[in-house]
Amino acid sequence: MTEKGFSIDFGAAPTGATAAEPVKGGPATHSALVILGSGPAGLTAAIYAARAELAPTVIGGYAPGGQLMLTSEVENFPGFPEGIQGPDLMTKMRAQAERFGAVMVDQDVERVDLTARPFRVWSAGREFTADALIVATGASAIWLGLESETRLRGRGVSSCATCDGFFFKGQEVAVIGGGDTALEEALFLTRFATTVHLVHRRDTFRASKIMVARAEAHPKITIHRNREVVEVLGEKATEALVLRDTSPSGSQATERLAVGGLFVAIGHRPNTALLGGALPVDEAGYLRLESGTSASAIEGVFVAGDVHDHRYRQAVTAAGDGCRAALDAERWLSEQASA
Fold first, then answer.
1. Exposure string (b/e) for 116-129, b if CB count within 10 Å is 16 or more?
2. With CB atoms 3.0 to 4.6 Å apart as the test, which of 8, 51, 97, 192 could cross-link to 66 if both were Cys?
3. DSSP track, 163-225
4. How far, in whole angstroms, is CA 156 from its chain's centroid?
5. CA 69 to CA 89: how far, in whole Å?
6. 283: number of CA atoms within 13 Å, CB side?
7. Rounded to whole angstroms, how far apart are CA atoms 215 and 198?
8. Sign of torsion, CA 216 222 225 231?
């Protein structure tokens, strides 16, 4: 059900990720533009770049399309008044990019070298070089790590209240987390749910005092301190949670909490490990951009989507970012050619 941006995990970069190392697999494949990522940001960038006749290469990972490939329904992406299945949306975006000449490579990126142009990217023993690069690798939601949580993801388990809250009208739901994001999502969900259970494993919240005060005062929010989720119950859909007492003097006893939805809001992890620290990040680990553009700190490297955006994290905003990055890359390549 989520409508979030691309968030496939490309994995950790090996030691020396930015060093130019020889790799077996034949000569390098060169493109004017290489795009890392095949979610809404990466594929939109590919559509624009391909229409500009840049013939971009998109290295999208072994699970191309990211989170939307696991999403049951998207109702807030413009142009689909009846909604669309997540995999169908990504399939259409991919076909559109391929129609204009984008080349898709369904492999994970292993490492990159951004120390000189052409930039170098290694994937499954192949080397790719590019005059310009767009990083659109997304950010992965941090989950609880439960088997039942994974099994019911998209069936009542979500990491985005603004994406999926509408589907839970008239139901009781739970939000897991203790930061501002968790409290913001809990407050947002009160528009739809009859009761929002805010579950936090500690006694105090990390969130700002004003957010805590708003949550405590809201008649639709019930706060469960010193509780953690140890199981999500349900066969085809989420039906309840098993909570365990985590208080220092507690009995570790468990209890059942009946809810129709679970929103995990314990953070996101931007997928930047493959860059090996080649680009600067902010205090939360997201890539920094030059003011007002999609440009990174390295000339010729552009950024799009959730790998830098920790505020909106929507498919439509990621797509807009992909458009910006492709236009910026096209203009930069034109300037280089005429220099």
1. ebbbbbbbeebbbb
2. 8
3. HHGGGGTTSEEEEE-SSHHHHHHHHHHTTT-SEEEEE-SSSS-SS-HHHHHHHHH-TTEEEE-
4. 19
5. 9
6. 0
7. 9
8. negative
Q: Note the pLDDT tens digit of each residue in 32-53.
A: 999 999 999 999 999 999 999 9
Distance CA 124, CA 24 (A): 10
Environment class of 248 (CB within 10 Å of its CB; exposed 0-12, middle 13-18, buried 19+): exposed
Active site residues: 160, 163-164
Asked if 175 and 161 touch (Cβ cutoff 8 Å), the reply is yes
Of 305, 338, 335, 308, whose CA–CA distance to 322 is shortest? 305
pLDDT band at 71 (very low <50, low <70, confident <90, very high): low
CB-based contact 190:170 (threshold 8 Å):
no
C-beta of residue 52 within 8 angstroms of C-beta of residue 330 = yes
Q: What is the mean pLDDT of residues 330-336?
A: 97
Q: Is the dihedral of CA 24, 128, 305, 114 positive or negative?
A: positive
Look-up of token digits 């600067």: 280
63's CB contacts (< 8 A; 6+ apart) are 8, 69
Residues 166-183, mean pLDDT to the nearest whole number: 96
Is 105 within 8 Å of 91 (Cβ atoms)?
Answer: no
Cα pseudo-dihedral 313, 317, 323, 325, rounded to 10: -40
- Residue 184 near residue 208, CB atoms below 8 Å: no
The residue-averaged pLDDT of 326-332 equals: 98
Amino acid making up residue 281: V
Q: How far is residue 250's CA from residue 255's CA, in Å, rounded to a whole number?
A: 13
Question: What value does the mean pLDDT take over residues 252-267?
Answer: 96
Give CA torsion, residues 310, 299, 136, 57, to 10 deg: 170
Answer yes or no: is pLDDT of 27 > 60.
yes
Q: Is the dihedral of CA 310, 313, 316, 321 positive or negative?
A: positive
- Token pair in block for residue 177: 């987390």
Is the pTM value of this prediction over 0.70? yes
